[in-house]
Amino acid sequence: MTDKSQMTHRRRRLAVSRWRYPLISLVSIIGMIGVWALITGAELVSSRVLPSPGDVLAQADHMVRNGYAGNPLIVHIGWSLFRAVSGFLLGIALAIPVGLLMSYSKTFGAITQPIFGFFRPIPPIAFIPLMIVWFGIGETSKVLLIFAASFNYTVLNSAAGMRSVPEQLVRAGVNLGLTRWQLFTSVMFPAALPSILTGVKTSAAVSWAVLVAAELLAAQAGLGFIITDAGTFFRISDVFIGILIIGVIGLSIEFLITAFERRLLHWQSKV
Amino acid sequence: MGTIVLDAVTKIYPAADGRSAEVVAVSDVGMTIADGEIICLVGPSGCGKSTVLNMIAGFESPSSGRITVSGKDIFGAGPDRMVVFQSPALFGWMTVWENITFGPRKRGVPKAQYEDDAHRFIKAVGLEDFSAHYPYQLSGGMRQRVQIARALTNQPEILLMDEPFGALDFQTRLLMQELLLKVWSEFKPTILFITHDVDEAIFLGDRVYVMSRRPGRLKEQFEVPFAKPRSIEMLTDTRFVTLKDKILHSIREELAR
């Protein structure tokens, strides 16, 4: 074998190994749809209970053209995104400074820690009835619920992140003559950022999950509304489409935040 | 100038909980370090070496006694006494250059005043090609060199080094020791250097202090009979071996006590 052919051979093997796992994942997805098609094709279950992939695709096409319940699909997606993103952003915008303050002031931490700690393990959905009683079925109660859920996951992570900044790093900052404020903004905050972002990621996932739950109960538009409404009228294809869109958007959100995190925390790699 | 005087310095830590007794970490330590001198502090683990350094740095204050630097009492930490930590306390999200210039930038020193120095020091530690790198891209020895360059860029009169080469492999450590002596001969800072390694203490120090077991006192001091500049030939000199033997015995007595 000549050197050149050896090289191409090796290069091909490298290329294969690089695509190996993504390919397996792709096959897995196709396989899942295949099994679905087989089950419905063999009419193992009624198409009223489980529509075939083809039916769902055709119905999706119909929904994209004609919308759902008088609103174009994009309006439903827009409402859901608006509620989730605004609640999520408000939540983390308040949670990060409050979390930082919790670790900065021991008294404030002692006051707030048990309160936030108590609410953390309660599924946010448990508050939906209360929210409706207190704030009605409008946007306020939905955004507030998402806000609270988002806040709760980021606040404790931010506080923990600040507390786990190595003492030596703080001393290095003090040694360099930093003021207390500079120490806070230029040393402690960036050092706590990995932990804060872990909280933010959880908040994003929870916000999206809580949103759908909130829309299941009371909404005139939104992806959660499509699922409940379609379920009520036994339009299972529409339920499937709703679920698929929620899944795809959920994945995209996670992808976006992970990409953002990678950019922001590139310095953490391989440490 | 960078003279350090400790007068009857004692550090007592209060009991961690109600039952245990308070801990006397350092007891009645008196020493004078002249401007431009390199003093090495050795002693058994937990004898209070780092406590002495932290008090001079201003991270902790003595329970009794007095510490003056250049004739003045110290209030807290400051860039006139730069600490080089054992594990490189670098800011991971900043490049080497940003780490080195961090102090002056934050203190509002005009760029023109620190830029030349930073270039000089980054070159002195051999990292001029790595100024855009991040700490995670560097080896352990390189990270310690960044710490040294960062300390020097603040133009301290005093360098306080807390086992800075302890985590490095033997060869890197030797290179770092030579580097430190080279840097010293150029800028002549006063250096307090803590180490476990007696060879290192003799190689670097003008004097070597041995501390006793806790509560840490200054037990003995040894003059190192070698002029600077020093070279590694010194490590096999009979005077070196004799001195090393004496110091090891002094430490051994403490361990056996």
Keywords:
A: 271 residues, mainly alpha, flat, B: 257 residues, alpha/beta, Rossmann fold, four-stranded antiparallel beta sheet, 36% helix
What does this structure look like?
- Chain A has 271 residues and is mainly α.
- Chain A has two domains: 3-44; 55-268, MetI-like (MetI-like fold, Orthogonal Bundle), CATH 1.10.3720.10.
- In chain A, 80% of the residues lie in helices and 0% in strands.
- Chain A has helices at 3-41, 53-66, 73-104, 106-119, 128-135, 139-163, 167-175, 180-217, 223-232, 236-264.
- In chain A, α5 (128-135) crosses α6 (139-163), α6 (139-163) runs antiparallel to α8 and α8 (180-217) packs parallel to α9 (223-232).
- Chain A starts with a helix and ends in a 7-residue tail after the last helix.
- Chain B has helices at 49-57, 96-106, 111-124, 140-153, 170-187, 198-204, 238-256, and strands at 4-13, 23-33, 38-42, 64-69, 72-73, 81-84, 158-162, 190-194, 207-211, 218-223.
- Chain B folds into two domains: 4-80 and 157-256, Rossmann fold (3-Layer(aba) Sandwich), CATH 3.40.50.300; 88-155, no CATH class.
- The longest helix of chain B has 19 residues, at 238-256.
- Chain B is an alpha/beta fold.
- Chain B contains seven helices and ten strands.
CATH superfamily of the largest domain in chain A: MetI-like
Quaternary structure of the protein: heterodimer
| Main sheet strand line-up of chain B | 6-7-8-3-9-10
Question: How far apart are the first and last residues' alpha carbons of chain A, in Å?
Answer: 42 Å
Uncertain stretches of chain B: none
Helix count of chain B, per DSSP? 7
Q: Helix content range of the residues of chain A, please?
A: over 70%
- Strand count, sense and closure of the main sheet of chain B? 6 strands, mixed
How many discrete domains of chain B?
2
Order of helices and strands of chain B: EEEHEEEHHHEHEHEEH
In what range is the share of β-strand residues of chain B? 15-25%
- Mean pLDDT score of chain A: 89
